[in-house]
Structure prediction request, 384 residues.
Amino acid sequence: MADSIMSKAATMEIPINSNGDTGTLPEDDSLEQAANLQWSLDEQVGSSRGTRDLQQVMVSGPNLNETSIVSGGYGGTAEGIISTSSIKGPAVRYNAEFNKRISVEGIGSNMHHSSSSSSSSMTAEEASRGVAVEKIETVKKWGLNTYKCTKQMISERFGRGSRTVDLELEAQIEVLRDTKKKYENVLRLARALTNHFYNMVQTQHALGDTFADLSQKSPELRDEFGYNAETQKLLCKNGETLLGAVNFFVSSINTLVNKTMEDSLMTIKMYEGARLEFDAYRSDLEELSLGPKDAVAMARIDAAQQQYQVQKDKYERLRSDVIIKLKFLEENKVKVMHKQLLLFHNAISAYFAGNQQQLEQTLKQFNIKLRPPGADKPSWLEEQ
Prediction:
């Protein structure tokens, strides 16, 4: 119904008098009535459709700014065409004000959103830029230090560069490395002895059980099988005691070689790296000192002097640590090996002499506790 009224108002013809003047313009009222009617229809539909539906209805209707009223008289010339650009009803005025309001609010919200997003993006960008700069500086320092150390290493290898040497300390380090190799060989042989002796004890245990079983099933050889069964069981018992002593010896040597000595060698490795860095920065400072003495060169010399002092302090600190560790390692090695070698000698001598009492006394002397049979695997309480 609204569409028919709007189309009727848009196509209405206006009668003119004989002299070509228009009379009253009844279509003005019709257009305004059509707009008012459309507005009332939109209000009846409901407020849920909102201002967006109102704007859509006004856009879909006739464009009053482009509407022309054509005369139906004779000789209709340009004077008979009346432009309706000056005719603006209430709906047209509301539409213009609505569009203006929407555009102003949209601009304000967009400006606020853009300003907040730009400030947050600038903060994130500055943070990421700071992290990137820090990483670049770290990589730069690492690369420069690696280059200087590599240059110093190559110079020393080809005999063109000088190195700092502590003859006494270097000799002690070489002795430690040689001692570690020999102790590793002792550890390997002691483990091999333990494995072989364990297999022999297991064989003696099985042989004793077999002799005992045959003594029950062979009445004519009962005594002979019985003597051998008791002998093998006694040897098996003494062998288990000796295994306890040898295992304690192996465990102590393993701790001395793979923990105590290895810790000292790690400190020595750090000391050698500090020595290389110290010589690299010392050579760099010497080269700069032989060059020109302008302002730029003096600034480089000052920076090199600071780096040289830092590396010198690091080198001297690690050198002192190595000297102290080597001293305590030597004392600990003598103490541990004195005890373990005495244990190994007494246990082996007592076993092969058949002196069971002396063998047990040796284990008590060194506080070695044997596990009962069937207790090879630790209980769940021991594992906690």
User: Anything to note?
Assistant: The CA atoms of residues 97 and 380 lie 85 Å apart.
